[in-house]
Write a structure and sequence with these properties.
Number of domains: 3
Radius of gyration: 23 Å
Shape: globular
Number of helices: 17
CATH superfamily of the largest domain: FAD/NAD(P)-binding domain
Strand order of the largest sheet: 8-7-18-19-20-17-21
Distance between the termini: 10 Å
CATH architecture of the largest domain: 3-Layer(bba) Sandwich
Strand content: 15-25%
Structural class: alpha+beta
CATH class of the largest domain: Alpha Beta
CATH topology of the largest domain: FAD/NAD(P)-binding domain
Length: 478
């Protein structure tokens, strides 16, 4: 069986690794991975500068989603897994140029502790009163289909919670807006809780009680509760590039082709014909691991409806700016991991992570690393600015938010690294589940074709790994 994998990001690499593992075990699995660019890994990219690990794209993955950790351990990277420094985990929201800490007890945007919510400066008195009354919210019986996250959150807690909490949190994950993202796709647990309990607060408290009861049962049965102490995030000591390099080293060198864009795809009686650098090549199976917008262009001649559905999945772009400073030249930083900036604040910055605090041991003593994020659906125009302009914007806004005594404009960074990721983050807009169902129906009529990537069922690194490996296993089984 000859398999073509189109796209050398983490999803394509995971699929290739699955096929390589099967081939080494004796399976009939001949594969070729085509990557249009000059390097593998997509947005997973990191570098070491004077002993500091700088992440150009994602810096970690969610620990509770096991696909990434399991793969790292298979690759022999278990000893390099690095937990987030959760003892110091604290996140702020920028409100009128002031940093306001997220109140304790927030679970999936839902306040579950009365006192911290009542005392926080994040919300007005009227919003706090509405949060208290949310406990009386009746179950939702009118199933009107999908809606935006903003509509769901505003119905329960008001517009201020959308602006100051939901929007910045989702922007940090998806690079998108709560007014566009699908509640059913992005926050399915909250949608289910609303139908069962009415009040999201009551639903979350019930879920919390169940978790505590399960943990106590495990202890009584003599089983350790491993998840109780699990870190929220996990990274690699050498950066996410370490995963890419290790994966690439496990693949057969002749099976990986860089600077090999696939410009055409056709279904034939013998399988699939690919046009690569002007030449035609035949394969029995295809794993499409390119972004949905690129997959749509290639698949439109094969199935116009499928191509249109894929092309209609929206994407946002992002910019990451890493800055290294000498701590001796900085004033005292706020405690915690960093801050998020609501769109209503009118700033270019979406967020900033104090990377030297989030993951210990990846920054030399005496150095501070700031990871600033810009772009998103609200500010695509920033992609055209020069590196110097983007660095100047970040430095100015950091000074305004953190204070000139902490990081004044006269304090020069020792190193600046700017990375642009155009159309890299899929947006799960309203109707995403229906679109996926339609895509699945069209795929059923095209045997030998599978899709993988962040546009379908999860945007994180573990999701892409899971989907890539699943696509390969399904083709092997068929």
């Amino acid at each position: 069986m000859r398999v073509a994998i189109i796209g050398g990001g983490i999803a394509g690499l995971a699929a290739a690794y699955e096929l390589e593992t099967a081939r080494a075990a004796g399976a009939n699995a001949d594969y070729t991975l085509f990557e249009a660019g000059s390097r593998l890994g997509g947005s997973l990219s990191s570098e070491a500068v004077d002993g500091a690990v700088l992440e150009r794209g994602p810096d970690s993955f969610l620990t509770e989603k096991r696909a990434a950790i399991d793969l790292c351990r298979e690759l022999g990277l278990g000893g390099d897994l690095l937990p987030s420094n959760d003892a110091a985990r604290k996140t702020y929201i920028v409100v009128r140029n002031r940093l306001v800490a997220l109140p304790d007890g927030l679970m999936f945007l839902v306040p579950t502790k009365l006192v911290p919510t009542a005392l926080t400066r994040l919300f007005s008195l009227s919003t706090k009163a509405r949060m208290a009354l949310e406990l009386l919210h009746p179950p939702r019986v009118d199933h009107r289909g999908d809606e935006t996250v903003a509509a769901l959150v505003e119905r329960h807690f008001g517009a201020e919670v959308v602006d100051r909490l939901a929007d910045p949190l989702l922007s940090g994950i998806y690079g998108g807006s709560a007014a566009q993202l699908s509640a059913r796709s992005v926050l399915p647990r909250l949608v289910e809780m609303e139908g069962q309990y009415g009040s999201l607060t009551r639903g979350m408290l019930a879920a919390h009680r169940r978790m505590n009861a399960a943990a106590k049962t495990q202890v009584r049965n003599g089983k350790s509760n491993k998840n109780a102490a699990a870190p929220v995030f996990t990274a690699l000591r050498g950066g996410m590039q370490q995963l890419i390099d290790t994966l690439a080293a496990r693949l057969h060198p002749a099976a990986v082709r860089l600077a090999a864009p696939v410009s055409g795809l056709a279904k034939t009686g013998q399988g699939w014909s690919l046009n690569v650098n002007g030449a035609s090549e035949m394969y029995e199976r295809v794993i499409m691991a390119a972004p949905a917008w690129a997959a749509g262009v290639l698949l439109r001649p094969v199935d116009p409806a499928l191509g249109e559905d894929l092309s209609a999945i929206p994407y946002s772009s992002s910019i990451t700016v890493n800055l290294i400073y000498s701590e001796a030249r900085l004033g005292r930083l706020p405690e915690g991991f960093g801050f998020l900036v609501p769109v209503v604040e009118g700033r270019a910055l979406l967020a900033c992570t104090f990377a030297h605090r989030k993951f210990l041991g990846r920054t030399p003593p005496g150095k501070a690393v700031f990871r600033a994020f810009l772009g998103g659906t609200q500010n695509e125009a920033l992609l055209t600015e020069t590196d110097d302009v983007l660095a100047a914007i970040v430095r100015r806004e950091l000074s305004e938010i953190l204070g000139a005594k902490t990081i004044g404009l006269n304090v020069e960074p020792e190193h600046v690294c700017v990375s642009r990721w155009r159309r890299a983050m899929a947006q799960y807009a309203v109707g995403h589940q229906e679109r996926l169902a339609h895509i699945g129906a069209r795929l059923a009529a095209l045997p030998g074709l599978r899709l993988a990537g962040n546009a379908y069922d999860g945007i994180g690194v573990p999701d892409c790994i899971r989907l890539g490996r699943r696509a390969a296993r399904e083709l092997l089984a068929s």
